[in-house]
Amino acid sequence: MSADISITVVDREGTEHEFSVPTDMDLNLMEVCKGFELPVEGICGGMAMCASCQVYVVTDEHFGERNDDEEAMLDEAYFVEENSRLGCQIPITPELDGIKVVLAPEAP
Amino acid sequence: MIKTDIIIIGAGPVGLFAIFEAGLMKLRCHLIDAIPQPGGQLAEIYPKKPIYDIPGYPSVLAGELVDKLMEQAAPFKPGFTLGERADSIQKQEDGTFIVTTSKGTQHHAPVVMIAGGLGSFEPRKPLISNIADFEDKGVRYIVKDPDQFEGKDMVISGGGDSALDWAIYFAEKGSFVHLVHRSDRFRAHKDSVARAYELAANGKMQLHTFGEVIELEGNDELESVVIHTKEEKTTVKTDLWFPLFGLSPKLGPIGDWGLEIEKNAIVVDTFDYQTNLPGVFAIGDVNTYPGKLKLILCGFHEATLAVQTAYKIINPDKKFTLKYTTVQGVQGFEQEQPKQTVTS
What CATH number is associated with residue A69? Predict the structure, then answer.
């Protein structure tokens, strides 16, 4: 079993939540947020089709790379910034240890 | 007025399967859906995605599953009101319900089943403060009756198939089209993207990549839009702007029906998936209960149990014994559902 990693999520009120998350359960960041009962809807279930799990990645080194579906969704989503990613497209891997993200505002 | 046994709101997989289960108990169904075709999100969002957790199907495309469910429901001759959103529900003195759509179509039945999934799909509207002032006065989220716009100059925003297809359509019909997109990658079909660049090269279209419409101007009607790109701000005189940013689901008016709502979902009793309003059920992704899983297969189960209580409401004096389809086969209805006019 691999070691858990640390993930910090800043909610929409500005409160920081630090979680210890396993890397061997095929989780993604959207699922982690839902699992810890943060207000992330994940309406489409992780298909990069709703942007309700949009986050801003604060720690640059953890930004990774957007995939095509994600880029396309972000082109149509609200409140998109340079460091926007969709939580559902960020798999939880050991490299993410120490990542900090801020939840994007809810779509109107 | 359309009369039936069960009004099903939402023509997604769970609503469609409810027709079959209700049909086995000789109950008629009529479905209402805001989208013009049946299938719900399977047809609207991911028709080409494979689903792997339908029992008996190691893999089935979402669109294919919808076709199969329609085929399975067909013997029970369901009615459909499509392209209309269920807006209001009124309980009658005799305990039956009248459900009225956005277009005023009325449906009357003793039982209502809400199989609304994520809600109704509504256009994603850009965040411009005065956009509501120009809705239907130059700003249109859906291209309806395209004939009336042919040859008119216009601005279209978006990078998906819908935006590209309409931009090409109108440019080919003699319109000058400003196509505004937030990046330079288009999600649309490759051929459409190539065609758009070709039309731009021929002076029939102007592409504003990395662009966004940020302001709307006009008195009563839209007169111009301000397009912001990386380099510049351009004001384009136009009385027609189509922001085509896809659809996003909203629970919508159902949220105001007096149903108990928790986290955007309708609370039900797992005995029969009835809501706090007797006679109104909620099945599939739209409901919630302890242990709820948003899976199509769970929705099928919920629909099956819900119609048992529906039967008792509709036939209070009759007993029903479960019959297996292997023994009985499927006895469909011979006749279409008669359209009755109720005067009250």
Answer: 3.10.20.30
Q: What does the H/E/C string look like for A22-63? A: CCCCCCEHHHHHHHCCCCCCCCCCCCCCCCCCEEEECCHHHC
pLDDT for B247 equals 79
Check CB contact under 8 Å for A72 and B187. Answer: yes
Contacts of B181 in chain A (CB under 8 A): 75
CA distance A43 to chain B (A): 7
Chains A, B: CB contacts under 8 A, how many?
38
Judge if pTM exceeds 0.90.
no
Residue B50 has a pLDDT of 94
Question: For residue B231, what are the domain limits?
Answer: 125-245
Q: What is the CATH number of the domain that holds B189?
A: 3.50.50.60
Q: Confidence class of residue B147 from pLDDT cuts 50, 70 and 90?
A: very high
The two structure tokens encoding residue B282? 């909620």
Whether A75 sits inside 8 A of B185 (CB atoms) is yes
**Cross-chain residue pair A50–B158, CB shorter than 8 Å:** no
Q: Among the residues of B99-218, which ranges form H helices?
A: 161-172, 190-201
Residues B199 and B283 occupy one common structural domain: no
Interchain CB distance below 8 Å, B127 and A78: yes
- Structural domain harbouring A77: 5-103
Find chain B residues with C-beta within 8 A of A43's C-beta. Answer: 118, 249
Mark whether B115 and B252 lie in a shared domain: yes
**pLDDT tier at A75, thresholds 50, 70, 90:** confident
**Helix B161-172 and helix B190-201, axial crossing angle in degrees, nearest 10:** 40
Domain end marker among B198, B224, B245 = B245
Q: Is residue A108 part of a domain?
A: no
B139 and B94 part of one domain = no
Query: 């209805």: which residue's tokens?
Result: B333
